[in-house]
Amino acid sequence: MTPEGLRAFCLSFNAAVEEFPFGPEASVFKVLGKMFALSRLDARPLTVNLKCDPDDAVRLRAEYEGLIAPGYHMSKRHWNTVTADGALPDRLVRELTEDSYDLVVAGLPRGERLRLGRG
Fold it and tell me: What keywords tag this UniProt record (predicted)?
């Protein structure tokens, strides 16, 4: 996955925006003010922090050791750092990104979830 592809995919979700609260080098992707992805798009290798179900997080880290790790500077229980430079299939990176978005949306009030089409 390219940095441009990651940015475009994150912004393809309903109400997703890119912000820079940690400086111009750190892209934070949010839905209705809640972060679902964080990446330094100019870093090599390209990585992205994604929210994850705690049980799935542990399983993914074991299955993709060295490519999926506990979230860097994040809650290690709920966030993973995913290497998105081609070592993992793009399909998996997209699935994990969508899962992160869905987890964040699931925590929003019902009316906002319905408005996003994720009731």
Answer: DNA-binding
What would the two tokens of residue 21 be?
Answer: 């609260």
pTM above 0.85, yes or no: yes
Q: Which domains does the chain have, with CATH numbers?
A: 3-115 (3.90.1150.30)
Half-sphere exposure of 18 (CA within 13 A, CB side): 16
Q: What is the DSSP annotation of 47-63?
A: EEEEE--HHHHHHHHHH
Count the neighbouring beta carbons within 10 Å of the beta carbon of residue 90.
Answer: 14
CA distances from 23 to 20, 28, 39, 48, 52 (A): 5, 10, 12, 16, 24
For residue 119, pLDDT over 70 is answered with no
Alpha carbon separation from 81 to 37, 42, 69 (Å, rounded)? 10, 15, 5
